[in-house]
Amino acid sequence: MLRHLYSALLYLLLPLLLLYFLWRSRKDPAYRQRLLERFSLGLKKCGLQPGGIVVHAVSVGETIAATPLIKQLQQQYPGLPLTVTGTTPTGSATISSRFGNTVQHCYLPLDYPGSVRRFLDALQPKLLVIVETELWPNLLAACRKRHIPVVVVNARLSARSAKGYRRFSALTRPLLNNISLLLTQDRASARRFRALGFGNTLQVTGNLKFELAIPAQTAQLVTEFAPLLTTRLVWVAASTHAGEDEQLLALYPRLKQCFPALLLLLVPRHPERFDKVAQLAQAQGCHVWRRSSGQLPGADTEIAVGDSMGELLAWYQLADLVFIGGSLIERGGHNPLEAICFGKAVQSGPHIFNFNEAYRQLQQQQAVVLVADSEQLFASCCQLLSDITLRQQLGQRAQQFFSRQQGATARTLDAINLLVAGTLMPSQPLANTSAYQTKQAGNASYWYDPAFFTEIAAEQFQSAWWQQQQAVIGSSSGRNTAYFVQHGGHKLVLRHYYRGGLVGKLLHDQFWLQPVAQSRAMQEYQLLSWMRAQGLAVPRPVAARYQRSGLIYRADLLIELIPDSKDLAAILQQRAMTAEEWQAVGQAIAQMHRLGVYHSDLNCRNIMLDSAGKVWLIDFDKCERREPGPWTEQNLARLLRSFNKERGKLAVFHWQDTDWAALLAGYQLAGYQQSLSAVAERN
After folding, report:
1. Exposed, middle or buried by CB within 10 Å (0-12, 13-18, 19+), for 212?
2. Is residue 558 a contact partner of residue 543, using CB atoms and an 8 Å limit?
3. Hey, which residues are catalytic here?
4. How far from each other are the two terminal CA atoms of the chain, in whole angstroms?
5. Which of 448, 475, 584, 670 has the fewest CB atoms in 10 Å of its CB?
């Protein structure tokens, strides 16, 4: 009922919305162009290919942040059309400049029921990815009705915004729960979304804005302008607003007296203010250069106006000092991360609630300067412009912080894959994994590698069938038997999933119903595939089965047998291992931990050595990828306990405390080598 009232209100506001677009078009004609597209009129005539992925990036900032993710999705699902939508002309221009014809593009329609219906009819998406928190009730409700999963990535929710959502909880609670997967920038946002009643899958994946993709034209622009600025001190004031430009321009003559080589480069946030800012600068009696002039700045240029789109990254690289706008007025600030990526000293005013978490972390690292007003900004400029060492130290701390935060794109992509794998896009491979195919037969779902099976059926997961084929070549002697079978030129391991503990005595092999992709077998299949793609020595997954029965399911997995290998417990009953072998074990575990893989049962029977001395890690049931934390030490402690346990119960077990020291040496050496590689890459 509330959503119907919301829709009725939208219709009542339609004349005002049209007037708004016409008003904005006075200074930016793009606001009246493609107006019908905002109501999804004529979309079917645009030649948009249906049936793919839609990524919605509201404007410029969201498009820049999502660029690495969009490119990964293009590589991930090359057979699916990818459509990137926006809501502003500047965002549309950024999409076109960054992706050209490699993606489809249109405006996301206004949230009228008819507009949303026409949009979804035209594109028929398999998945909708929304960047940050552009959440529209009718769009989300329509996606749910059509069983289109919605993923919100890089979500951020400030305390102020959460308070606003709470005022309309009757509308926002069902809106939020139409989201299939919510991926937040930070834990504070995650807590606020949970407090608002979000009950579906939620993960903290980090901030995509730490994954900056630098366009090729940026380097060209820097190369062109750098020689002209070698003798200048360049102060870039980025994303500035009305009421702020005036303060900055008033500071310039005072700073110019102290720093005669100072060049102020103003980059207004909105294109419609380009002319106004240029007029304000000229009113100061200064020599003003505009990027739109088509000429290069002269030696006498005092104030430059960056009245262009998509070139801010170049201005950041050319800067000696950067001020982030929207912060001297109550606008809430703008993204500082693009500047610190280049190791620049960054200043901001006090109004930073839009990026409060990023600024908080930068303050903790002493990597940003916050000022209360224009007078403090003047004092900060005097200090930083006169001390190159201080600027460099500030920029280096900021850049180091930026580097430590990276990885959000990979985590986001992995989370999306877990949602879609095996259900929405069965013909597509998982991220960075070998290709697999799927099959549905009755209540059973199958995933299988076509390199091993041209067809898959229930019998391939039954030991009796393999015995009838005289293909069983052995079995394990653990609590739950696994069978080794010969299939063509391959040796495979067939494992049925069982419950452990007291519950296992009652339910044995029955698990509460879950989506196929989140079942035990498919989770392990995906994790093994991903780890192999990252270079970890783990078994190759071959096939998996998910068999539903009422409210429970059973699961099976086929993996490739590691040839000529023994687990460490078996080896240590026969001989002592060399220090080099122990170091290799430590390095293998360190590699797993660096990739964020938590092994829930890391023990000496789940680590193998083959005849060539290569270390393999096995048995990844109930394992997962995690954020860095104390679990790595807990993993190692669990492994140490397993060695001591085996030594205590076996008459012969060649295990000494010095062996553990050698293992840890290999573990730490792997971390040191990674640090060296990271330094080499940065240099």
Report:
1. middle
2. yes
3. 62
4. 59
5. 475
